[in-house]
Amino acid sequence: VSKLSLRNIEKRYGNVIALHPVSLEVEEGEFLTLLGPSGSGKTTILQILAGLIDADGGEMLIGGKPAQHLPAWERDIGLVFQNYALFPHMTIEENLAFPLKMRRRPAAEIARRVQDVLEVVRLPDIALRFPSELSGGQQQRIALARCAIYKPAIILMDEPLGALDKQLRDHMQIEVRRLHRELGATILYVTHDQDEAMAMSDRICLMNGGRIQQLGAPEDMYFSP
Ligand code: ADP
Ligand code: ADP
């Protein structure tokens, strides 16, 4: 149900080719990383999958179904970005409850799941604080929790650890992998950090100039020095 297939997906911005025809399959439950320099087309792939922008050509299947005309909220996709995108005027509890309220879950269930997910990200005591009162690392854990709370089958992550310092990034890599195991979700992860891709991924898709250069398990990748 959570397999992703891109078949000859293309995207142009005026004269700029963001994606040459790209074909990629992400297996159910897989952790696949798009690795590549800035401008190589990584974010464009995530945006097309999330339904935030349309491809110019090609075909896309989500869970085996043509997705082009599926609205974003029907794709069972969660998004996590570098800038956290927590709602600043809401408490942590309200931020976490938001996706469940949107889905009209009962209040008692929401309260229970908010507490559960705060335990999962090991921040059980901050429900009533505001995002600005948390450190960057804590905010990023809440952003992960807000995505995990409704258990999407597919999670798209765009440089989610990019704003964190090295020590926190190493720690959060472990947290993200633990979340992947616990949710059993298919994860498509974007980074320009080769070490991060090597440490976290089942497979790495190396991109450059809007094309796939290599695709394979970390131990099978070749990186030019
Ligand atoms: P990456 O995520 O690997 O940094 P992007 O997918 O963001 O790469 O961008 C791929 C190419 O498309 C780049 O050349 C970028 O400048 C261009 N691009 C992306 N978004 C836009 C946009 N909204 N308008 C014009 N060009 C864009
Ligand atoms: P952007 O601000 O880049 O356009 P969005 O508006 O799509 O991004 O998403 C803003 C924030 O809301 C993101 O951090 C994302 O994790 C979260 N979000 C997006 N879609 C959903 C959803 N269906 N359910 C819960 N949270 C969502």
TrEMBL record:
The transmembrane residues are none
GO terms of molecular function:
ATP binding
Q: Where is the ABC transporter domain positioned along the sequence?
A: 4-225
Q: What keywords tag this UniProt record?
A: ATP-binding, Nucleotide-binding, Transport
Source domain of life: Bacteria
Belongs to which family? Belongs to the ABC transporter superfamily.
User: What is this protein identified as?
Assistant: ABC transporter ATP-binding protein
